[in-house]
């Protein structure tokens, strides 16, 4: 198709569809990176001390947003499971559960992870760190990604 025909097509399309019809398909599009298909390790929570091991070990509590709205994870002792709802700004967990083991030294991080997930309403990515917020917008927890 010659340049003349393309211009004529854009004029007709602009009259029919408005100015958006003639924008180049090669213009950059701002993509929102969704926090799916990766493990998110809990770095800290609003109502908990630092969650990495006191000996400097890496955090153990994590969650993963799987396909079809399924939540999976591990609290350091118990398996975490449930459902989630995600869009460009909202991340909530209507159902969250866990297995019932008791482990010495691992329960604090697990309890903090569950509180963060259960209170989550929205999310943001800040320099590669996933931040979950409550309904009022207050910080609940911060997570660092590790791709499987």
Descriptors:
single chain, 148 residues, alpha+beta
Describe the structure.
- The protein has 148 residues and is of the alpha+beta class.
- Helices cover 19% and strands 34% of the residues.
- The protein contains two helices and eight strands, in the order αβββββαβββ.
- It has helices at 3-17, 107-119; strands spanning 39-45, 62-65, 70-74, 79-86, 91-98, 122-126, 129-133, 139-146.
- An eight-stranded antiparallel β-sheet has the order 5-4-3-2-1-8-7-6.
- Strand 4 (79-86) and strand 5 (91-98) form a beta hairpin.
- The N and C termini lie far apart (46 Å).
Query: SSE string, helix = H, strand = E?
Result: HEEEEEHEEE
Share of β-strand residues: 25-35%
Write down the overall geometry: globular
Rg from alpha-carbon coordinates:
22 Å
What class, by secondary structure content? Answer: alpha+beta
Low-confidence stretches: 1-32
Treating each run of at least 4 consecutive H or I residues as one helix, how many helices? 2
Read across the widest sheet, the strand sequence of neighbours is 5-4-3-2-1-8-7-6
- Straight-line N-to-C gap: 46 Å
Helix content: 10-25%
Layout of helices and strands:
Layout lengths: L2 H15 L21 E7 L16 E4 L4 E5 L4 E8 L4 E8 L8 H13 L2 E5 L2 E5 L5 E8 L2
Antiparallel strand pairs: 1-2, 1-8, 2-3, 3-4, 4-5, 6-7, 7-8
Short description:
The protein is of the alpha+beta class and 148 residues long. The chain has two helices and eight strands, in the order H-E-E-E-E-E-H-E-E-E.
